User: Fold these one by one.
Assistant:
Number 1:
Amino acid sequence: SPGVFCYPTGLAIDPSTNNLYICDGGNNRVQVFNKSFEFIFHFSDKMDRPVDICIKRNKVYVTQNNSNLLTVHSTDGKYLESVGLKGKNHLEFDGPRGLDIC
């Protein structure tokens, strides 16, 4: 259901719209709300326990804890690409949690 969360974790604000993006890990999705906290939409393509989120240059970056991925989406939720595998080498993750894009 929109606005109902199961294990909410990371959140980010889109500076161009002031929309709030919240990782809803237990429901394997990201929910999006306007600045009045009204539900707008959610996206769940390629989601497997999203835990943190960052928005930079009109792209939404999401760390996925179970799949060990960093996924990239457009601000309207369209899946664009992903990187990562389980491991400890270059572009490999082991249960990623935090995220910051400088």
Note: The CA atoms of residues 19 and 102 lie 20 Å apart.
Number 2:
Amino acid sequence: MSSVTDGDWTNKLCGFGCDGAAVMLGKKNGVVAKFLERQPCLVGVHCFAHRLELSFKDALKQVKIFGEADRFLLNLYLFYHNSSLNRSMLKRSCQAYATPACVPTRVGGTRWLPHMKRALDNLWKLYPALVEHLQQLPHQKGASNDALGKSKNFLKNLTDPSMLYFLHFLTDVVSVLSVLSLGIQSNATTLGDMFQKIQNTVAALRKHTTRDGPMLQKISNEKKFDSKSLKTFETSRPVVIEKLEESMDNRFSCQVEAVEATQIANFKLWPSEIEEDHGDIEVDVLMKQFDGILRDQGVDVTLIADEWTMLQCVLYKRYNGKLSEASWVQVNESYKTDFPNILDLIDLILTLPVQSAECERVFSHMKLVKTDWRSKLGSEPLSDQIMVILNTDDVLSYDPLPAVHLWNSSCLKPRRPSTKPYGKRAEPTGAESMDLNLSLSDSDNISIFTSDSEIDDIET
């Protein structure tokens, strides 16, 4: 770290985000513990995206039907992934039903909930084609006994009422959690936003105990079953929501007061009308936590409390009940000179990390960049390419014009991008033919003699 920063970098270290591995969060020899020895003001944040994944697994590992559904989806993926014949026959069934040709997606082995949502969405896109192919498999020539046995089991799961309803219910639940997961992974999300997002997600999940989601409504309207055949699903449905709510509460319960105090940076959580003591306790907690860092950076800690009160008065008067539309970028531009100390504290808590998904993304991109064909790629060019991939816009939102203008204006000689490229040239005939005489001198130099009419073309 000292080689890439100027001065003592520990004076500026305020937050560290990581997964929940013991090597990171171990109380004695973890990375956070080692950092705390050098910077006592540090706040270690367990990645919220990892916490969400762990809470989902903790909750559903206690539900029997979910284990059966998870194994079914994994085996279905492997059934088509490992057999080109099964994939080709499934694509034929897709063509017969006029559905997009695709194959089941892997559920296990991926880290984030949106991947599970994609697998479930693909399952419902392929559902009629899957049933058709599995029903026709016994009549297919060359089908092995193993494939026949698996297809019979898959068809049983795809037509079982309880399993069918549970998979649709699981799609609705995973859709709600995927929104939270993608929000956590966004670089625009701050630590103060997380608690409101988690509360909204838990409230949405709680309603799924009695109210059917979009996918469950769809299957309920299309296929009617008696209550006896849906007994397993009906008993598992409230358990899933209860366990999810309990595990999310356990995983997201915050033991560091400074992390909870960052909620003052979320304008949506401010009261509709000004209150005298709003945020005073949170500001005191943050001042005690980051006292050393703030003093090292020249912040007058004694003025923060008064500036916080005055800043609230100014913002309530300026936005007149529309504080949800405010942003700290606007506030910094307008009031940095008036309230420098409290805004320095706000800037500090806005930099605290929410997730470490970016690190996981780096490993994924590294596998895509440094392949077997590029195994000799050095560390520096590999780092540069990954940095470009991570920090550039998406292809759909990328504007190439600034790069084109830079390319056109940064050269020593003027470029001519409007000049048409040469097409296929006609072979010269008659007087236009070029008379080339090549002579090799003793010094192995090659001289080219042409007619005067062709010299200009050669120079061009």
Note: Strands lie at 15-18, 43-46, 437-440, 446-449.
